């Protein structure tokens, strides 16, 4: 929660200048939550679990170009798809579940931030050509 410092005036009541009404307090709390995390040590276990799934995908496929509809792991596919939006929001200063530490982990893995739709179609075409010539 948000702590509010309140000083007493001579009659023991809070002055209107010292107290925030609940609406302003709620708005300030919501604004703080909407800002991207500035704590570079903030890497949650759920994110790390998805990174492990990404590493397994990279080990199997040699890249991190996950198809948009990856039947073997739809959760990884959805997470991968959402990363792009979250990265854009992070750099725009909007609400995002990414921070510098998470972005560094992904960059260190060689995460490809390019347009995945184009890459997805490229991989499909490459696979089609390999299969049918």
TrEMBL record:
Helicase-associated domain segment(s): 46-110
Region (Disordered) residue spans: 1-42
Gene3D superfamilies: 6.10.140.530
Biased composition (Basic and acidic residues): 14-38
InterPro entries attached to this UniProt entry: Helicase_assoc (IPR005114)
Protein name: Helicase-associated domain-containing protein
Lineage per the UniProt record: Eukaryota, Sar, Stramenopiles, Ochrophyta, Bacillariophyta
């Amino acid at each position: 929660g948000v702590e509010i410092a309140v000083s007493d005036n001579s009659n023991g009541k809070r002055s209107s200048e010292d107290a925030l009404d609940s609406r302003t307090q709620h708005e300030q709390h919501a604004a703080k939550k909407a800002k991207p995390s500035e704590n570079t040590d903030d890497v949650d276990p759920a994110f790390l679990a998805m990174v492990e799934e990404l590493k397994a995908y990279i080990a199997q496929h040699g890249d991190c170009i996950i198809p948009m509809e990856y039947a073997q792991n739809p959760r990884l596919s959805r997470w991968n798809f959402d990363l792009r939006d979250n990265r854009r929001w992070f750099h725009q200063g909007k609400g995002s579940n990414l921070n510098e530490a998470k972005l560094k982990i992904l960059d260190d893995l060689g995460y490809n931030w390019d347009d995945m739709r184009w890459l997805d179609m490229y991989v499909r075409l490459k696979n089609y050509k390999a299969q049918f010539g």
